[in-house]
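Researcher: I'd like a structural prediction for the single chain below. Treat it as a standalone chain; there are no partners to consider.
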Amino acid sequence: MKAKRFKTKVAGLDHPDLVDFKPSLNMWQRALRHIRQDRATVGAILVIVVLAAICMAAPLIDEVFQVDPITQDLRNNYAPMFSKGHPFGTDELGRDHLSRLLYGGQVSLSIAFAAAFLAIGIGIAVGAFAGFYGGLLDDFIMWFVTTWNSIPSLFLLILITSLLSPSPLTLVLILGITGWTGTTRLVRGQTYSIKEREYVIAARAVGASNLRIMFLHIVPNILSLIIVDLSLTLGALILAESALSFLGFGVRAPTATWGNMLNGGLDYARRAQHLVFIPGFLITMTVFCFFLLGDGLRDAFDPKIAD
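Model: Treating it as a single chain, here is the predicted structure.
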């Protein structure tokens, strides 16, 4: 982005000497400039956007190839990749694998996004209250967070999902309610460092309520860190949902997700390798891109690096 050049007279001089200077960029402009120059981050964004768009366009793709994720054709099961009418082959029941991958991607990505926003929302609220009020409330919240984090997350999720047999909506609630502690620690620490700054004191002096100060003055000033945390949380939740579905504790068949498709394909791995390779590749690539995006955003919002 080319910065516009402005000219101004040098103060204290009798003749109109002119000097050029570039206007300083704000944090968001610096971050955008850094992201544009970071090929890895741009590539990760493109992969995520394209993959999500293709999954959302599953009904249109089904019309083009005249397939659907439900219809079974036992005479054409285990069809290899690039078969006529089935670009990604078929599964053990003769169902089109591409169609199931796209609809499974819809479910996996939707669960991850919904659960991530729920977890981030809870984490922001709890962390802001803990950091702003401090004292006994902060001690209790941090004791709970530390105790909660001491429990292995996968074992905890397996225990909860084995009792509930979750649907996609239930799994969103489970992942969201159990995944907020990291955001809470981040927001609490930043709130502690911001709540005594001049603009917060000024807002308190003019009669702003505590809720207004927390969510209109403090939280917007740590939005960049929250965005980075969101991208990393998305990758972690896609991995968690896939792991639960792979182990049989997530979304159950006939609803397709990448995790349960990978689990189902293991029994037929020798006969139809594409049933294992493609879901595993999509999970790995998606999680890697979200982590790569989070790392790129962290660098972009770091003033030492972005400048």
